[in-house]
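Section handout, structural biology tutorial.
Before the tutorial, make sure you can parse a SMILES string by hand: atoms, branches in parentheses, ring closures as digits. In the record below the ligand is zinc ion, and the chain has 393 residues. In the tutorial you will relate the predicted structure tokens back to the input. Do not try to memorize them.
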Amino acid sequence: MNLSSAFTVDPDAPAIRRHNAQVKAAQEAFDAGRPTRVLFKCSEWVGQHGFYADEIGLDYREYYTNPDLMLQVQLEAARRRREIPVHDMILGAPPRESWSTGVDLWPAVAPGAFNCELMYRRETVIANRSRHLSREECDALVMPSIEDGGFVGTIRCFHEYLVNQYQDKLVYLGKPVDRIQNGMGTSGFFSLALDLRGEEIMSDMYEDEAFAHRFLRKLADWSDALTRRWAAPADRNAPFPLTDHGIDMLSPAMYEKFILPILLEKNRGRTDEPHLFHHCGRGQQLFPIVSRHFKLKTLHALTYPLLDIERIRREVGPDVHLIVLISDGILNLGTAADVRSAVKSLLTDSLKRSGPLTLISGDLLPGTKMDNLHVLYESVKEFGAIGSFSATP
Ligand SMILES: [Zn+2]
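Predicted structure of the complex:
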């Protein structure tokens, strides 16, 4: 594998030293519970590489079919995000312990296991079509093996290959590649219902309640079994996730009737309660219900301005860490002025003082304008200052 042998930025250069010192000070203040400004973080998720794909003209059809290339892109993207001063991230230095890598066939894992048609595209992530099964077909559906059914087998092959070739054998920029993640999991059982039954599952909730309950339960059981099978041994009894990428289309009543009982039941007897709720996109109506039933600590990827962040703060209370991102529509397609005004309107004094708050970038899909990321970071530093006398007019 042809990997870079050094960072292209010098951590001792004055501009980089200034950036790193400022990031360190802001992070330490946040960790001490006395933030001086809102942080703007970049996730180390293995699927976060679109900005780098743009730089090298990556063909995603190759990325998703060649595990060597998959690992190489993840490592080089992780290096690259340590070279561009657009996040609160230490530049020109590797992560403290090791690189975060893994099989990255999200979001096709669960739909692929059920033989949904997958679409490999040059420019972006894999997509899948819904199978639009009838109710009878859903009831008769044979669940794929969590060992190697359909796409699960492909993912397993990728993982075994990467572990054999590279795990604990490869050192990149001074840090090891260890614990290559297997990438198994789902986007939620309701999302899977949409992949298999299509939007008809929402009519079913009115027309055939018994079917909707039965089918959702069947998919939740399978999702749970898959996740437990492929979790690290210490995480086998971890909380059943609240995250589900299709639920924003449900009314509070339908969510309470069909989704919540499964979440409550699945989380009985676990080592811990679910504290994390990743929720990107719309779905304002769900936060009061979720926060009433679960002791949330972190809300992740709340999308502004699709969601009213101040209202969510009132609903979940002052202790929950709100991790917010600016909508892709603004970041990808908007002008610099659009980005700046979105950050300004989000970071009101009342929100900044209401409890722990962090901004993150989204998945940085191909086409994200790097100039807009620069503007975003500068705007967070400008409007994110916390103190009684902000420098901002
Ligand atoms: Zn999401």
